[in-house]
Design brief:
The protein is built from 8 helices and 6 strands. It is of the alpha/beta class and about 180 residues long. It has a single domain, classed as Oxidized Rhodanese, domain 1 (3-Layer(aba) Sandwich).
């Protein structure tokens, strides 16, 4: 099944009654993954853009890379660019780690951005690599009892047990996800 067909199927599923308000024993709030070949990134972006315009659900899209950059002011971002040019890539990774090492700040910021949503789309996973891993964020927000369904749009492969970014990197931390579509 093509990525586009799977996106159509996912859209139908999220619009089913009760999708955003699970019921039953434990009433677990599920976190889903929509994995896709990295070469289909533009198809996924375009589809999500259209979906966000036509849906009646309150969906909040949080791009991981933009989320990470939101912790810095504009002048600090300019400084980060200079540092990357002068000191290299490894130094930028080290600087971003200072934010990631403060799980409370990261989780609170995510929860604030998602406050009124019924469903959260996490995008920009490939752009955020290696600065921020999607599983790092998911673990941090679950520790804060975040109770909204999430769909992680993942340019790679989900084996059912682990995530393989771009279909090759398989050192993503394990996190309980269910494939959607």
């Amino acid at each position: 099944m093509s990525t586009y067909d799977r996106l159509n199927k996912m859209e139908k599923r999220i619009n089913e009654e009760g999708f955003t308000t699970p019921t039953g024993i434990g009433s677990e709030i599920p976190h889903y993954v929509f994995d896709y070949p990295a070469e289909d990134e533009l198809i996924v972006r375009s589809y999500i853009e259209g979906l966000l315009k036509r849906t009646t659900l309150k969906i909040k899209e949080i791009n991981l890379f933009k989320f990470l950059l939101s912790f810095y002011k504009e002048d600090e971002l300019e400084e980060l660019i200079e540092i990357s040019e002068e000191e290299g890539y490894d130094e930028i990774v080290r600087i971003f780690q200072t934010i990631i090492e403060h799980p409370h700040i990261m989780a609170q910021s995510f929860i604030e951005k998602a406050k009124d949503a019924e469903l959260i789309f996490i995008t920009g996973v490939g752009n955020a690599y290696p600065f921020l891993r999607s599983s790092q964020l998911l673990k941090k927000i679950s520790d804060h009892a975040f109770r909204k369904p999430i769909i992680l749009f993942y340019p790679g492969h989900f084996t059912g047990l682990d995530l393989r970014l771009f279909g090759i990197l398989h050192n993503e931390d394990q996190y309980q996800l269910t494939r959607i579509s």
